[in-house]
Design a protein that fits this description.
- By secondary structure, the protein is an alpha/beta fold.
- Helix content is 41%, strand content 19%.
- Strands 1, 2, 3, 4, 5, 6, 7, 8 and 9 form a nine-stranded mixed β-sheet that branches.
- It is globular, with a radius of gyration of 18 Å.
Length: 280
Amino acid sequence: MEEKAKFSVLFSVYYKENPEFFDKALESVFHQTVQADEWVIVKDGPIPEGLQAVIDKYKTMSGVCLKEVPLPENRGLGLALAAGVPECSYELIARMDSDDIAVPERFALQLAEFEKDPSLDLCGGQIKEFETTPEEIVGERHVPLTQEEIEKYQKTRSAFNHVTVMFKKSKVLEAGNYKDCPLMEDDMLWVDMLLRGAVCKNVGETLCFVRTDRNMITRRGGMKYYKKYKSARKKILETGFISKREYRKTNFIQFLVCLMPAWLRKFVFFKMLHKKRKAK
């Protein structure tokens, strides 16, 4: 029997995180059917004692090799992850958010895909969204499965659920690593990787339960949010991955969404974009 590929799991945590949610996220990694060989946690600026206590708890657990990467100040998600990627010891890196919950088979499913196709560079999956417990799902986000579908989808929206991805460190670094691109740190990386010929796929299975709240919908409105969105899309336009027509079209749609009252934006988000699939 072949030995499994070794891999790292990469987190970023900052001072506003909820220690209870962070603990649940780490617990879901600890209870994977296939254990990560290394946990890399970037501390994006100084963190409070409650968050540090969670890290210290898992550092003492048997089988956990945990590396802390402290940053002197808060840099934002993109630059925090950019600092974390080079610190990962292994070629395969699984991304994990600090308040989400991975399904127990997540890493096993993704490792199987990389074993099946050695040319694979990036593999993600589906998510289900919850507000209080993973048993009470409020939405789902389904992303395309194949390379052709991914390349087409990525021109308008993110073709990956960032919290689910596993990727090759070498391909991420070849693409220039994560960059400072607020709202679209992940999109920018996927675009850079696709432009450099990255082989990609998503699996059809749910890999993570993602924590959400109604306040998030409120935050995704207004001109301040729209200006940040437009700035990020402009950076993607400058890569040549999208056309000016695609840039203008997505900006116009986002402008309308930002002007909507919160109740209507919530309807669009949960009933149209992230609607639950009916059980067969």
